[in-house]
Amino acid sequence: MNHYLLVYLLLFLGFCLTFLVGRQRKKHDLIDIFWGLGFVISALASFLLGPRSPGALLITLAVLLWGLRLTIHLATRNLGKPEDFRYQAMRQKWPRRFELVMFLRIYLLQFALNALIGFPVVYSNLEPAGLPGILLYLGLALFLAGFLFEAIGDEQLRRFKSRPENKGRLMTTGLWAWTRHPNYFGEALLWWGIFLMSISVDTGSFFLVFSPLIITLLLLFVSGVPLLEKKYEGRADWAAYKARTSKFIPRPPRG
Fold it and tell me: Which H, E and C letters describe the chain, residue by residue?
């Protein structure tokens, strides 16, 4: 069987299994937890099937570090709690065909996005590679910077929300004073790092730029920043925070 086909068949089966578990437990926000784990599956499978070059090993380890950290973070945050309000709203909107709509509009879409965004990793693992160049280490530096931004931002927010006195308040300190979305910025940055690492092991693969472009545009204009910011519109504290804090790229707060 073609190695690419096998990798994406395993990934698809992972999404299908997550759907079946979510359906049985009436908790479809499990797919949010599986998002990072999907990249781990495709990265690990393609590395084991490929020539296992040093550059591919470094890229795979980077994805495993990011994907497992994100999976554990979301699992700790979401498991044992009611289903996310977004999926509850969908249950009410499509009471008779909710499961079908979920599979077609959410699971299949996330499978496609996971496959596209993670393709540079699979490609780097399965294709013959040259000797790693300076872009590999530049990409690794970008990846680590993005990973730290995302992980530290998530941890700062977790600690903030764990204090009862902060209920209903906005997180505006730490990395959140420099950007309103340090975790989203970090995720975009680390995928640009993975892209640079990928073209380092195959200098003819600049076409892989579609991967970081997709995740950056998604986070900025579709599923990340817009959805979260819409939740807080109309609040005076949000307007003040928005006026002094960068939307995405970190910079010192105004004033």
Answer: CCHHHHHHHHHHHHHHHHHHHHHHHCCCCHHHHHHHHHHHHHHHHHHHHCCCCHHHHHHHHHHHHHHHHHHHHHHHHHCCCCCCHHHHHHHHHCCCCHHHHHHHHHHHHHHHHHHHHCHHHHHHHHCCCCCCCHHHHHHHHHHHHHHHHHHHHHHHHHHHHHCHHHCCCCCCCHHHHCCCCHHHHHHHHHHHHHHHHHHHHCCCCHHHHHHHHHHHHHHHHCCCHHHHHHHHCCCHHHHHHHHHCCCCCCCCCCC
pLDDT at residue 93, rounded to an integer: 84
pTM of the model: 0.94
pLDDT tens digits for 95-120? Answer: 888 999 899 999 999 999 999 999 99
Contact 81, 30 (CB under 8 A): no
- Tell which phi-psi region holds residue 52, choosing left (phi > 0), alpha (psi between -120 and 50) or beta: left
C-alpha torsion angle, residues 74, 75, 76, 80 (rounded to 10): 120
